[in-house]
Write a structure and sequence with these properties.
two-stranded antiparallel ribbon, 10 helices
Length: 137
Amino acid sequence: MTHDEIRAAIGADPALQALVPDTVALAAALSEGRKRWKPTEIGVGTIIEVLGLAAANPVLDALYASPDYRHVKPLLEQGRLRLDVVAQAGLLEPLVAGGLLTQAQLDALVARAKEPAPVAEYDVRVAIYADDGSLRV
């Protein structure tokens, strides 16, 4: 989060305003649930591990049979499909719309490509305190 985003979040949330000037508590509250994409390569094995064999088989069959995914097959076989890239691009959503994956299964796969994105206490401190030590929020 930028310093402006931190100030805006605090200004819009009375619960966060109540934490001022506790920068540690503010950073923890602002960090809660924040995630960012991380480079994640997957292959057939990961799909089977996450979905289970019974659910993975029809998904993999559909991916291999569809001309839309013809370039995905070698990446899956080599374990080099960038999950973070295809998930961000929405390339897996048609599998949910087509009934091959449930939203929960897609979410389980996508969770592999996300990691916590905490807000640093220092950034909160810089955002809420002016150079003279006065509060900005």
